[in-house]
Amino acid sequence: NEDGTAKSTLPAEGFTLMIGNLNGKNMILSGSDFEIVPFDESSKITNCEITLSEVSSVTISGLTIENTNKNGIHILEGCTDVTIAENYFDITGDAESAASGQYSISAIFIEGFVSGINISENDIEVSSDISYTYGISQSGYNLDYNPEDFTISNNEISVINYGTTGIGEAIYLDNVFSAVIENNDIKVRTYDDVIAYGMQVSDSMYSAIMYEGYDGDETSPNNIVIRGNKLDIFSEYMIYGITVISAGIQVDEDGEMELCAFPLNITIADNVVYADSDKGVIGIAGKVYNMTVINNNVTAIGTSAEGVVSYDEIGVGTYALGVVYNGGN
């Protein structure tokens, strides 16, 4: 149907959905213990966003997804134990033809509380002039609990933002607890005043507390491992290679914000970062109070970040390795 529901009812669990050629029909799936695979090697999904809603023990594998101005796969609140493996994504964003109010596009977009997300061995290509262009993006803002148990491994991700402002980013995670990002091959290209990111683990807790009056059990991100990734990034403006932001925030029993409340357990190791910018460039950096950064190979080529406008908490600059203390220096 036009709204993504099925004309016939599938069992709620324990089935295999084989998809042939599908054009222009969005899909919304819920249930447990099922898999989605192609009907045959020539099967192709075109202009169809696959949305998972409150699913558990689900695998999506072997699909070819070619979309314009639509995400490839959208994972919603309440999904657990989801594997997305060995798929090909070709996602195009065209700002001129996009729907009014569309400011972002991703091959894989995750929002809300989720647990047990495994994204591995996918080939992801995203080319867009929409302001916020991602390979994989996840929103953890103002939730009751941290999204948890992420594995993002052995993917090939290419992101090109050919617009004039905004960002192009391969992997973005927010407020996650326990994430492993390893052995991914990443290429990012941005032009004009578009900022290029390889990957960032971010912390939106301060904003949630200050602007939403947050008093739940979510915390800043922690237990993060980023290792063995290869990043090749070019920008005419500003580059952030691998960055992690975590103030160690939690809300105490009196509803007050605590800073630096727990060990962060952040490790960035064995990565190769090549970052070439016409202006500012930051290879590996953290706005954190503890992390381990070992055995990385970083090439950071840039000039001056003067005049670069970025709202990233890391700030702007030209350096290979850095730590920004939570006090702001």
Strand content: over 45%
Specify the overall morphology. Answer: globular
The pLDDT mean sits at 94
Structural class: mainly beta
Rg, Å, rounded: 20 Å
Outline the low-pLDDT stretches.
Answer: none
The termini sit apart by: 55 Å
Key traits:
single chain, 329 residues, mainly beta, 1 helix, 2% helix
Explained architecture:
By secondary structure, the chain is mainly β. It is built from 1 helix and 30 strands. The strands form 3 sheets. It has an 18-stranded parallel beta sheet that branches. The protein has a 10-stranded parallel beta sheet with strand order 2-4-6-9-12-15-18-21-26-29, with no helix packed on it. The chain has a two-stranded antiparallel ribbon with strand order 23-24. A hairpin with a 5-residue loop joins strand 23 and strand 24. The longest helix is centred in the middle third of the chain and has 8 residues. The radius of gyration is 20 Å and the shape is globular. The termini are far apart.
Topology:
Elements: E1 16-19, E2 22-23, E3 27-38, E4 45-46, E5 50-61, E6 64-68, E7 73-75, E8 80-85, E9 88-93, E10 104-111, E11 115-120, E12 123-128, E13 132-139, E14 148-153, E15 156-161, E16 165-174, E17 177-182, E18 185-190, E19 193-202, H1 205-212, E20 222-227, E21 230-235, E22 238-245, E23 250-251, E24 257-258, E25 266-269, E26 272-277, E27 280-287, E28 292-294, E29 297-301, E30 318-323
Parallel strand pairs: 1-3, 2-4, 3-5, 4-6, 5-7, 5-8, 6-9, 7-10, 8-11, 9-12, 10-13, 11-14, 12-15, 13-16, 14-17, 15-18, 16-19, 17-20, 18-21, 19-22, 20-25, 21-26, 22-27, 25-28, 26-29, 27-30
Antiparallel strand pairs: 23-24
